[in-house]
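Subject: sequence -> structure tokens, single chain

Hey, anyone have a minute? Need the predicted structure for the following. Not urgent.
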Amino acid sequence: MKHSSSTVIPISAVGRAHPAVAVPEIAVPATGQLLDRLGRPMTDLRISVTDRCNFRCSYCMPKDVFDKDYQYLPHSALLSFEEMTRMARLFASHGVRKIRLTGGEPLLRKNIEGLIGQLAEIRTPAGEPLALTLTTNGSLLRRKAAALQSAGLQRVTVSLDSLDDAVFRHMNDVDFPVADVLAGIDAALAAGMGPIKVNMVVKRGTNEQEILPMARYFREQHGGKVVLRFIEYMDVGATNGWRMDEVLPSAEVIARIHAEFPLVPLQASAPGETAQRWAYADGGGEIGVISSVTQAFCHDCSRARLSTEGKLYLCLFASAGHDLRPLLRGAASDEDIASAIGHIWQGRADRYSELRALRTTDADDAAGDKAPRRVEMSYIGG
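Reply:
Had a minute. Here:
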């Protein structure tokens, strides 16, 4: 792998990095009221269905690292849809109410509609269906939107970093046209999956000039049917060459938009929501900002992440996962696996973004002997 560093975790090595999880001696029953060490419940599960993507965005899967020689996981290592569904059912028994399918690019996984159909059958302890959503780069959304909705997908989030075709092709680094992503958004709306969220990662010096054109386009074309969200460029993984001076604070994003389209703040729609919500004062819809660099929101984070081959990660910035696949493919009962999940969550104290904010210089991140080995975002989803 090119340009590797001591802080990069190659996907091919992740399976060897962490031992399998054992069933705890003292059972942790599934009561739907699971809390971690900081009193945070587990309500959201993000399942990565593939480690592959057809884009090479520099902030996620840069081409000079994820090239033709990169070692992806073999198909035999990936969880089957039945295994993912079994895991989702056990997480639901502990309080998970929402599942987001991620990747890589999840629409590259063949027959993803089959998985969605299975997940749609799961019920919470209170008998309610799970909220099912999916994050995609939109490249395959136009042809798949109707089938996804028919299978039970309720919402979709599309990653789109620019409306300018030249800028967008440069950022995805595979020469993919922006018009095809916009067509996918239109198809998803036509299929009844609105409101759609569109996520724009803002990188200072690269696409910050696209903030107002993006806001103007989705406000005028779709109004309340599309919620545009601006994400601060994050220090996820170790391959994207992250630098603090390339972060455009969300406060500046809001100021730029407010100067042209006055905004008013909105209350969070749910506990643990990552985005701060703002409405256009004239009723033209809403936007959101996700400020994980300048305004940490770890204190109420309720999200767990399951990798495509069965490792449980407790934070987007985690350096280690908990390998559940041996239990899943061994003789462990549902009760055993649920107890293991509960034990792991009860020990959770992750709050990377808050700790990062306490640092006084960037030197701590630059010091190789101090920097944690963080897993890549493309491996466990954003």
